[in-house]
Amino acid sequence: MIGKLKGRIEETGTDHLVVDVGGVGYLVQASSRTLSRAGGVGEAVVLFIETVVREDAIRLFGFLSAEEREWFRLLQTVQGVGAKVALALLSALAPGELSQAIVLQDKAAVSRTPGIGPKLAQRIVTELKDKAGALTAPLPVTAGKIVRAPQGVAAEAASALVNLGYSMSDAAGAVASALAELGEGTRLDALIRAALRQLAR
Hints:
The chain is of the alpha+beta class. The chain folds into three domains: about 5-65, CATH 2.40.50.140; about 65-135, DNA polymerase, domain 1, CATH 1.10.150.20; about 140-200, no CATH class. It contains nine helices and seven strands, in the order βββαββαααααββααα. The strands form two sheets. A five-stranded mixed beta barrel has the order 1-2-3-5-4. The N and C termini lie far apart (about 50 Å).
């Protein structure tokens, strides 16, 4: 099995690149995020590889970090998620954003990926909550305290902020600060406004 390739980019496509390693060109499928950061033709590249063997083909999937490769593997343990969907999800969300979506149980962030509907998004965040383990990034620290995963109205507020374009970590931190300021039982609209003020500081 091939686990890593180090060579030069010979060709790039919309969903793949060809890596020349000692005169042998390896066709490697990759997420759009990986392709945009790998470099251009002629540049050196190091890719972590997941080799998938099927009856009719051997396919290589490449990632710029071992963490991203682990997420690719983990995502496919969810029913309904194959290599294509896993790559699409890693194209839409960086590993850190994906881990935060799972911690926050934010199916809205996951369902923004083309090809992933609300039901599959819910299954992904639910099933991976206990499987992600070490891959799940810690939540941000605010005022010396670790921000816990928002629940209920707080989770809805964090999801709303993510939909406005803020990162998962920023949204979680802002909501936690706003909740500490306003107290439990705060209405959703008030919590969102307070969190936005936190982000504007």
